[in-house]
Design goal:
Blueprint: E1 2-3, H1 21-27, E2 33-35, H2 40-52, E3 57-60, E4 81-86, E5 93-97
Parallel strand pairs: 1-3, 2-3
Antiparallel strand pairs: 4-5
Length: 101
Amino acid sequence: MGLSFGGVSIGEDGPSQMALEDIAIFRAVHSSAVLYPSDAVSAERLVETMARRPGINYLRTSRPKTPILYSKDERFPVPGFKVLRKSDQDKATVIGGRRWE
């Protein structure tokens, strides 16, 4: 199952269409996995993962165009997370997580 109309970004439909309830609803289902890819590469890999993974899987995508963040050989284990960028002085770390399982 998947959704591309909710989101954490305001799209063409305006703020009234900005919903997050779907994440909470599917997280409440026992043994479900909620996956929210950040670019086309992660979306493709996570769809492949969903096809092989037993149980309930929910893929949430965004409608706006997004930049490619990952190389084509990147892997996305479920459960797991990725450190996207880390500063030289370790002052800030950006983590893309999929530990929602």
